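[SOLVED] Predicted holo structure with flavin-adenine dinucleotide

Edit: marking solved, answer below. Original request kept for reference. I posted the sequence and ligand SMILES and asked for the 3D complex as structure tokens.
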Amino acid sequence: MRGEARVVVVGGGVVGASVLYHLTKAGWKEVMLIERDELTCGSTWHAAGGMHTINGDPNVAKLQQYTIQLYREIERISGQSCGVHLTGGIMLAGTRERLDWLKMAQARGRYLGMQLEMLTVDEAAQRFPLLDKRHFVGAMFDPIEGHVDPYGVTHAYAKSAQLAGAEVIRHTRVVDLKPRPDGSWDVITDRGNIHAEHVVNAGGLWAREVGRMVGLELPILAMEHQYLITEEVPQIAGLREQMHCIDFEGELYLREERGGVLIGTYERAGVPWSPLETPSDFTQSLLPNDLERIAPSLEVAFQHFPALGEVGIRKVVNGPFTFAPDGNPLVGPIKGLRNFWVACGVMAGFSQGGGVGLALSQWMVEGDPGSDIWAMDVARYGDWATLAYTNAKVRENYSRRFRIRFPNEELPAARPLRTTPIYDRLGERHAVFGEYCGLEHALWFAPRAADAREEVTFRRSNAHEHVAEECRAVAERVGLLEISNYGKIEVTGAGAEAWLSRVMANRVPAVGRIGLTPMLNEAGRLIGDFTMCRLAPDRVLLIGTLAAETYYLRWFERLLPPAGVHVRACATEYLGLSVAGPGSRALLQSLVRADLSNAAFPFLAFRRLDIGMIPALVGRISFTGELGYEIWVTPDYQRALYELLVAAGAERGLKPFGGRALNCMRIEKGFGTWTREFRPIYGPYEAGLGRFVALEKPDFIGRPAALKERASGGERRLVAFAVEAGDADTIGDEPIWHEGRVVGWVTSGAYGHRVGRSLALGYVPAPIAASDAGFEIEIIGERRPARRLSAPGQAGQGCAYDPTGARMRG
Ligand SMILES: Cc1cc2nc3c(=O)[nH]c(=O)nc-3n(C[C@H](O)[C@H](O)[C@H](O)COP(=O)(O)OP(=O)(O)OC[C@H]3O[C@@H](n4cnc5c(N)ncnc54)[C@H](O)[C@@H]3O)c2cc1C
């Protein structure tokens, strides 16, 4: 074993082996993998090896496609078979909702280049003759599905990497990791030490323990998972290669295995394994079977596939594997730890392992993951994702693995966790709450307690009419919204202005003003959007997305000078309320001594004001597109502020509104938001943010790329559409058709109550963005005519409501 390495990958499961392979493929030498026992001895060796392309996040779905296509490559390089059986698979729907879900998945697959095919029950039965047709209403076929040999895949990655010069060290345990001042690491093992420039935690079942070596508590939990293999099933003799199936209502996956059927289930009463610490002597081990626990699932299996009830069980496997709270991997660098990377929490190593290795290696080698991997980025979790929170969420996620998550569905586990002082006040007004980063916020308000429950659906829900009322109140009178769930980062110090000017694409506003700005990476792609509120020459409050707080801080720490600038997250140190609507100025003026006239407190002003007795920071801005104010106070004042505004607003018809109404209104205005319209795959001109890019500044990150994008116009354009929808609006990820071809995808959609139309925002290729006709948007399997909206001065981008902005500036 060498004493020096460029990279040490800790862990020789399928994920660590893939990372190692991809690092060599990217051209890095002196890369080393350290495995405490044999390769695959964690959760990899006993996996069922199933692989599929479907994922809730289209970008993760692309990486899954990549993984499956990679197997032939590593087989060719290594000479090691991966045991690929690309059988294709069917997904069965037992309800209308599930059929809708499949139609939506098929539609999304269109712009991902996936050839998904809807089947009738009869067609499904021809492909999978074991099913009892009475339990199903339809199905979908995916040709890119099948299974692999976990041992073969892991060894094919490792051998391919070794042939390119990588070293694989087995029977060696990493016992500690010590950082050096220059950012490199001493990797302490039970067989000597290695000095490495980078360390990758691919510790799988032990990723938490590897994390703890560097003071990191990763949000990961292992769950027990069982599958069984039946004796031979005579009915499938001769049909072997076609046997791959997911039965969503039965919460089962099935495939042929040596003449019998492998049946796996994500049971509702899932059991965590070693919730606090993974035993160090657990190697190539399994857990005791517990068929009792999966008996309800098996009963369903025997009803849905009667032949399975007639054969015996040959083998049962119960093994643990890890999950993050949302079921997606944890990948990337860690804030506060130089040259330390994670690739863990991978619950589908044979669908995702290749994509994880590719993204991480590009990140390490190029400084960027190369694609939009927000859904897998470890930075999507903050301090609120504690071990106990993770435990509750992973159990919930596991039990719902095959259940539909409706777009308007809020899940109950680990709630309420973070609340603000007005939480119970909003509850008294019959708020229906949602959770975001563990923080409760009102989605909408019901007129009576009995109505404060939302039916979950892909179509318009019972909330529709109440959200309409809220939008009407904001448009005609005045609405009150809690905005505490915005992220806040304070930048202070003598060097704050110069530093922000380099980090942000727009100019830093003058003291007392607000400036909107995109944040770009070196490639000129969008990695954030902020409202910059200038409090003092040396103090700026950045308001952005709460979920991206760690992501932003990780980016900032790379760029901070040794002295003169301080950056601090302060999301819940300032809680917020917003008043919006034509009556908002008069309401606030009745509580404030300062002059709030348009001349004295214009659009985008930001001041310290006393509201009654309450010291507050007030910005004249509103995401609703109406005249409005955002008011920030420390938590101790929030309740008093709320009471004051509610009391003063009573005679002006003030109505509380929630996040649903806000979403409708921002879509009517064509205002984008992070993770939907703004993601690192788009440039600022593509996203309609060109007017916030101050190219006259001589130097800011991404400027050269932004200049090029402005000159070329970019590849795509964010466009607003009015859609002839039925009883379902777009929710995001629907394909956009143009003259019979899929050309783009929807990023957000909602019914615009102020304009009385169903609306969508989405990206289409630049050359057709100005087309006036020929667009359709597919909603739940139906192509609906869509009309591009346009507004003067906003080439290619449109706005359904108040295109000149007169209302918010008034
Ligand atoms: C019953 C079952 C069925 C499954 N079915 C499927 C399926 O059909 N399809 C699918 O895609 N996935 C399936 N999985 C999940 C799959 O197994 C995991 O996604 C995958 O194995 C994760 O790989 P990994 O490399 O992250 O972790 P692991 O396989 O746990 O690898 C981590 C490695 O790190 C090593 N290590 C840890 N700490 C140290 C240290 N300090 N020093 C040195 N080495 C260390 C360990 O020894 C281990 O080998 C299944 C899992 C189970 C349990």
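OP edit: The chain has a mean pLDDT of 95. Thanks to everyone who chimed in.
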